[in-house]
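Forum > Structural Biology > Help requests

Title: Can anyone predict the 3D structure of ABC transmembrane type-1 domain-containing protein?

Hi all, first post here. I have the sequence for ABC transmembrane type-1 domain-containing protein but no way to get a structure on my laptop. I'd be grateful if someone could post the structure tokens.
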Amino acid sequence: MKILKLYAWEKSFEQQILDIREKEIEQLKKSAYLLTVSAFNWFITPFLVALSIFGTYVLISPENVLDADKAFVGLALLNILRQPLTMLPSAVTLLIQSRVSIGRLTKFLCNDELSAENVDNLPASREAPHSISIKDGSFAWAREEEPFLKNVNLNVKTGSLTAVVGQIGAGKSSLVASMLGLMEKKSGAVEIRGSLAYVPQQAWIQNMTVKNNILFGRPFDHERYEKVLDVCALRTDLELLSAGDETEIGERGANLSGGQRQRISLARAVYSDADVILLDDPLSAVDAHVGKHIFEQAIGPKGLLRGKTRILVTHGITYLPQTDLIVVLDKGKLSEVGSYLQLLCNNGAFAEFLRLYFLEEQDKDEEDIDPEVQSVKEDLLQRAGSNHSSKRPSTTAMRRSSVESKIREAFNRTLSHVSSTNKGKEAPKKSTSKVEAKVETAAGKLVEEETAEIGNVKLSVYDTYFKNSTYSVAGGMAFAYALYNAFNIWSSFWLTSWTEDAGIPERNGTEWRDYRLGIYGLFGILQGVTITVAYFLLAYGQIMASRNLHKGLLHRIMRAPMSFFDTTPLGRVVNRFSKDVEIVDTVIPMNIEGIVYCLLAVVATLMVVSISTPIFAPVIVPLAVFYFLIQRFYIPSSRQLKRLEAVSRSPIYSHFQESVSGSSVILAARQGDRFILENEQRVDANNMSFYLNIVSNRYDSVL
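Reply #1:
Sure, ran it for you. Structure tokens for ABC transmembrane type-1 domain-containing protein below:
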């Protein structure tokens, strides 16, 4: 969203989303109009069956006279079948929807999973010579793809610092992924000894406090925690935050800079005290002097992680002389493996890598290049470009120690100079997050908790819906339903009058019989027409409301300030655009139809019963009071349970998205069970409200 606002792309992306939504609306429209045709069949079929039975009976013989016993007993039997026959199409529709959903889930769940055999995880052992061992390894990103990494043979000594370098796309991150077991192993063997920690190239930050991000579910060790803050250069940043390390970080580290996110991600790995730590270019997002501090205090030979096996993917050549081993990748293959001096003297892929690096640096203005850095470049270019193969091995062996010493000294001078220079340049840059500081509260809370509304649904909510579906459409639908019920009542009265003709001989003739049968059939046709009009208007209003409400919601989201996205989890927004929009699309129209139909049907039934049996009228009042009292308890409870269910659904989406985006870190730390448990707890919290809502609904139905 920051990028959209920065480039003023809101209108463009809004239109793209609306175009996709319009395709969904087209499918919704087809479904709604198909429902209109189905509704005509549902409502007209029972009447047509009754008309066919009565018509066949009276037309088959002049002696067959339709009396009350035959007519209303037949109607009673047909009404017994009416409800299941009416529900059958709905059940078939739900069955089809369930089949489609199950098919999608089955396809997803049957996808290839990462094999546990990709990596052999062995216990840590100080006696083992190697913590990481890859033998004849070939790896691909999918089972059906050709291997990207081929013929990998690598042994990393326990407690060593290994750098992985190469051009863009050479396979550096892929090599780390193969160690994590994220790539499909086509051949060979991978052994990792001890626990793992992983720092991805793009920092993964959870929506929780800084402290909890670093702890990552591990017990709090105050002494180690303080050391981690120091070596990862987080102390100054915490002083700028409103509540220190108790400050809540927004989703994906919304209120932090890229460097701060990367350092917190690194601090999580350092605090884990894992035996093997995989670092995928973690210093690229931090300033030069901060990177030097982190390398010296945490990653380097004298850092907090000394004694741990470290794999460092890097583009910074200034760190290479201090590594124990350098792995050079080229087009998915290990082109060279050796120490810094060995690779420099080989004049191979590593020397070519250095030449390309320095040639890119030469494009800078001469005044921007420090003299000491320039001298180091010239020295390295000369050594990397010279043909060492022409020298005698004995001469190279004699000079190796002195050359290595000279190069290390030159690099140390360069690092010191860069550090002092950058410190002066970075002095004014104290605050890295300005907008975010405004939205943080004194307690360090950033994300606003979603709370359920209390009390009745405001009339403005109903007004908004009917305005978007247009009041005229809603009024027309209600009027069509009223006519349907009126014709239904008149058909019942007409049938009653017809049965009374059995006692009047002059009305048992053919002409009178045909007249009665024709009018009764006309009432059925009118019922079919009015119910079709009602469902057509319902479908039209449904489409209008779905289109307009989604458009308005999207328009406001696109124009919300960035502070809104800092304080609102993405799962909450997804919840609004998924489940809530689905309710607007399908559930609310059906509920409106059910309310109007049932209300008018109850009124019509009470009118018929009261007219035909006046003694029943006094009983209606106490029954109405009884049901009114029940609804006073049921409606508020059901409404609040629905609200709680909606509110508890957003954390599920947020946690799921967070878990998927950080799956590599979770897998490396072997904390999958903890995240699965957290997901189950959130689903259970949602199911509590959902289950209670269903139970209360059944209770009301029994009453």
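The CA atoms of residues 196 and 668 lie 5 Å apart. Residues 158-177+275-427 form a domain with the Rossmann fold fold (CATH 3.40.50.300).
Shout if anything looks off.
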